[in-house]
Amino acid sequence: MAPSDRPKAILFDIGGVCVLSPLEAISTYENKHNIPSDWINYAISRSAPNGFWQRLERGEIKMDKEFFQGFNADLRNESFWKDFHASFRNSKKKLKDVANPTQLGDHVSLKAEAADSRPTDQDRGAQPTESPGQAQPEPRKETSGRPTLSKLAKDTTIGDPVSLESEDVAQSASSNSTPLSKQSKSSSSPSPPEATSALDSLPPLADIDAESLFWSMMEHARTPDPYIFPALLRLKKLPSEERPILAALSNTVIFPDGHPYNRLSDSSESDPRNHFDIFVASAEVGLRKPNADIYKLTLDKLNKLHKEQGGSGVKAEDCVFLDDIGENVKTAKELGMKTIKVVLGKTWRAVKELEHLTGLDLMDEKTRRSKL
Q1: How far is the C-alpha of 75 from the C-alpha of 157, rounded, in Å?
Q2: Is 156 helix (H, G, I), strand (E, B) or coil?
Q3: Under 8 Å between Cβ of 15 and 22
Q4: Any residues with CB less than 8 A from the CB of 5 and at least 6 apart, and which?
Q5: DSSP readout, 303-316?
Q6: Percent of the chain with pLDDT over 90
């Protein structure tokens, strides 16, 4: 592909794209503390648009004691907890259909693919970017001693780690054939047995240390992705006349002054911020994805830079956008960008898609042979 035919700009999300997704850290926390799978994502989603997580990512509040207290309150919302269980008891909906991923930030994105696409040992070992001796995060292990939602709530069965199906659905269907006389008698009772059963079986609210959870998520997100980050480095090293503009568009947080996490890594090469021409951070501009305004803001910056470099400018159709959240990808596509949906545990596929769109080799040969 001739350089003139390549995209003029490539936009990367950070968490779950350039660096590992903290979803595994959330899952590990839930597993360790016997918390129902995906409750944390659900609670953060339900707290939107003005939950403490969302406000932190818009830069409206500081990362201080008040934030952690508020974040903890969002994670211990009794109404959310009740709905979390009741929603799945009375329908066949999956959690991914109930928890709205558009409300989640990069650090806590709900991945529908998480159940069947966690990184394999081969995935984790490819193109290592961590420092020698740095421990890789351990994959989540299912333990027989962990109470599942089917044990915590009566009459509930688990179809997979992110979906719940209610046995009450079948019972409800069979109840439709009840004789009319019995239906009338049932309708006259003051409190239907199903309703009281749902309330009686509600397990105790999950006890979560929001501050400990938060820092485990941030720590996990400091590890570069073994496929996309090396591809970014290869793009950065291209001659200027061949290289697209590299931009980051990420929902982010601002750490306190002097905090070591103000940079993603102590190594300048493994810090993504050092490899982008433009970096748009939600907490710095007061907007979050999937709000179209933050995309338009980024396009304005790309257009200005391209013209400063002697080009004709950048439009949405000149860009490729990579993100791990479907709603974020949807907004980019609606604006006219080419898009790549990054799948948890399958990030090498995103690199192959990017190679196809750019005509560039972005994997080393060893990795390419292992993924053919």
Answers
A1: 24
A2: strand
A3: yes
A4: 359
A5: HHHHHHTTS----G
A6: 57
Q: How confident is the model at residue 141 (pLDDT cuts 50, 70, 90)?
A: very low
Q: How many helices (H) and strands (E) does the chain have?
A: 18, 7
Q: How far apart are CA 288 and CA 56, in angstroms?
A: 10
Cα–Cα separations (whole angstroms), residue 336 to 41, 249, 306, 331, 333:
29, 16, 18, 9, 5
Question: Which residues make Cβ contacts (< 8 Å) with residue 249, sequence separation at least 6?
Answer: 11, 12, 13, 280, 289, 294, 295, 298, 321
Instruction: Write out pLDDT tens, residues 204-226.
Output: 999 999 999 999 999 999 999 99
- Residue 43 exposed, middle or buried by CB count within 10 Å (0-12, 13-18, 19+): buried
Residue 313, CA atoms < 13 Å, CB-side half-sphere? 5
Q: How far apart are the first and last CA of the chain?
A: 21
| DSSP structure class, residue 204 | P
Spatial CA neighbour of 86 closest among 31, 136, 155: 155
Question: Exposed, middle or buried, 124 (CB in 10 Å: 0-12/13-18/19+)?
Answer: middle
Q: How far is CA 1 from the centre of its chain?
A: 33
- Which uninterrupted H or E stretch holds 298? helix 292-308
* pTM, to two decimals: 0.71
CA distance 243 to 358: 10
Single out the residue of 217, 164, 255, 166 nearest to residue 40, CA to CA: 217
Q: How far apart are CA 302 and CA 8, in angstroms?
A: 9
Distance between CA 201 and CA 4 in Å, rounded? 63
Lowest pLDDT segment from 39-48, 251-260, 363-372: 363-372
Read out DSSP for 235-283? Answer: HHTS-TTTPPEEEEEE----PPTT-GGGSS-SSSTT-GGGG-SEEEEHH
DSSP string, 113-142: GGGT-PPPHHHHHSS--SPTTPPPPPPP--
User: CA 176 to CA 157: how far, in whole Å?
Assistant: 22
